[in-house]
User: Which sequence fits this backbone?
């Protein structure tokens, strides 16, 4: 027995050492351009190309040549735009684009979508996305035409949408950067003379009508006729042939959105207590949105119940976009503003810090409207609800101009050389990994979780003494379960699900990386505690149960023989 305990202790220490090694190792982004280029031929991405040049710029793009003639460029979508898929990991696509901004080819080189693509051929996904090939992105950048859209595939909606959005937005960002296309001669703007920020001194309580009236709360109303006309204009005959039934003037959806991290808007819609609780959980500079809707169409849908992602709405700011997940979501019953309607659906979404959301700049909430056109096929159109924070909530501060540095002098009184001053300058600090910023911003939650796990460990070690005192055991058990339900489940939203299991298993098969798992500190701690629990207690109980089972079989065999 002592040897068995020693083995378990050794394995536990080994697990801890491996965990610290993993935490101490640098986290590398999975998949850069140079890693994926060997997976595609130049002609697949840029027709006619027979060789690729050297990477250029940051993010890198690679020129594609036919002998010595430049035909286009190749880049990785995730280097320029958000490409996080259903599994929480980027969907990596090599994209070919001509010097004039025309998409020439696509190649799916890596994805980790263990749930969405089960039973769905990859060919079907690519058929939907490949419709973007041949699109001229220059008019899209100028705003002359709408951004192209891909046809969604039933069962893989999020995957297809993320792939299509990342291709369009990455090409748009590349053209705007002036590295190709007619935007190459873009003038460099002058430095801003003032910065905008939310004014914390504006914190009065206002009623619903005044919030809607000045744009603090923005509204999008769609009738059945609006939606039917949008599908007719989309050119999809199958979708147009299945119009929404009912009076054309009936409300399809009445959608509202507001930034409740702004003091006046937040206190008016959430109440003083609700706003204070929200600010306590937000990181510095982080924002939160309230989305409310009425009508026959739900902006939430049902995908977040099955897989934890809201696939009908998307937050867009410039070339960045994100779809909210269940861990970002809190359900609200009512809005506290005087005169606010009674909405059947109200959601509070916390914008992830890594999105880099700027509340002082315009943004939009994009609504995806789906329509079934076959047994497994769906068509969709999008509507945008634009939002610009009213100036009354902002303050402008002049940008401090750095004083002209006086030339350094040598002991002889002569100016030091530029090279000498450069050598004396401190080297710029390197950007720390995102997961480290997330851990540093969740110190309280992490500390509380570690304390709770430590308490649970003590309970496991002294469970024999605890069960001898039934009253104490009952109260300890109830209190701990209540803490797990209220704090860990409802407040911290750190529930494990089958998505975590499949994502973890898939990462072991396709190349494990700590980056995604470390970006969710509480989930990571729970995973480690489960692994340790299985090692120290789960295996012991399994062995004990196996011994009991063996004894029972032995007894039954003996009785049969007699």
Assistant:
């Amino acid at each position: 027995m002592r040897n068995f305990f020693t083995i378990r202790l050794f394995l536990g220490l080994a697990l801890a050492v491996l965990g610290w090694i993993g935490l101490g190792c640098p986290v590398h982004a999975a998949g850069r351009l140079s890693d994926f280029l060997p997976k595609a031929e130049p002609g697949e991405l840029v027709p006619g190309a027979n060789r690729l040049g050297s990477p250029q710029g940051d993010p890198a793009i690679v020129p594609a040549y036919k002998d010595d003639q430049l035909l286009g460029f190749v880049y990785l979508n995730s280097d320029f735009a958000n490409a996080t898929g259903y599994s929480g990991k980027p969907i990596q696509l090599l994209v070919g684009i001509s010097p004039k901004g025309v998409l020439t080819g696509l190649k799916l080189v890596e994805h980790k979508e263990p749930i969405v693509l089960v039973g769905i051929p990859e060919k079907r996904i690519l058929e939907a996305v490949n419709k973007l090939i041949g699109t001229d992105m220059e008019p899209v950048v100028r705003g002359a035409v709408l951004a192209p859209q891909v046809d969604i595939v039933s069962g893989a909606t999020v995957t297809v949408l993320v792939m299509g959005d990342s291709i369009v937005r990455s090409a748009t960002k590349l053209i705007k950067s002036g590295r190709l296309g007619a935007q190459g001669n873009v003038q460099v703007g002058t430095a801003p003379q003032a910065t905008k920020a939310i004014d914390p001194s504006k914190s009065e309580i206002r009623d619903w009508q005044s919030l809607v009236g000045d744009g603090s709360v923005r509204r999008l109303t769609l009738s059945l006729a609006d939606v039917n006309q949008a599908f007719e204009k989309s050119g999809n005959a199958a979708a147009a042939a299945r119009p929404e039934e009912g009076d054309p003037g009936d409300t399809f959806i009445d959608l509202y959105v507001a930034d409740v991290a702004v003091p006046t808007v937040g206190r008016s819609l959430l109440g003083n207590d609700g706003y204070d609780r929200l600010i306590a959980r937000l990181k510095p500079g982080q924002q939160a949105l309230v989305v409310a809707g009425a009508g026959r169409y739900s902006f939430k849908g049902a995908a977040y119940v099955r897989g934890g992602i809201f696939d009908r709405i998307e937050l867009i700011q410039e070339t960045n976009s994100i779809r909210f997940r269940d861990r970002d979501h809190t359900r609200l019953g009512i809005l506290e503003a005087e005169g606010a309607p009674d909405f059947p659906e109200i959601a509070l979404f916390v914008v992830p810090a890594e999105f880099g959301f700027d509340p002082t700049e315009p943004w939009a909430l994009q609504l995806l409207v789906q329509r079934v056109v076959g047994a497994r096929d769906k068509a969709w159109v999008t509507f945008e609800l634009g939002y610009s924070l009213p100036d009354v909530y902002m303050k402008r501060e002049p940008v401090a101009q750095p004083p002209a540095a006086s030339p350094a002098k040598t002991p002889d009184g002569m100016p030091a050389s530029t090279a000498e001053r450069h050598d004396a300058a401190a080297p710029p600090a390197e950007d720390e990994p995102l997961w480290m910023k997330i851990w540093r911003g969740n110190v309280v939650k992490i500390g509380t979780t570690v304390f709770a796990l430590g308490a649970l460990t003590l309970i496991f070690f002294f469970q024999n003494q605890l069960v001898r005192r039934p009253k104490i055991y009952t109260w300890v058990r109830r209190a701990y379960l209540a803490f797990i339900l209220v704090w860990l489940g409802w407040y911290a939203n750190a529930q494990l699900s089958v998505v975590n299991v499949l994502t973890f298993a898939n990462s072991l098969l396709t190349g494990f990386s700590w980056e995604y798992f470390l970006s969710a500190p509480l989930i990571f701690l729970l995973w480690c505690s489960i692994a340790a629990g299985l090692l120290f207690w789960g295996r012991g109980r399994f062995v004990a149960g196996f011994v009991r089972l063996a004894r029972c079989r032995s007894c039954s065999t003996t009785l049969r023989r007699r």
Notes: The chain has 19 helices and 16 strands. Confidence is low (pLDDT under 50) at residues 1-31, 181-191, 404-432, 539-562.
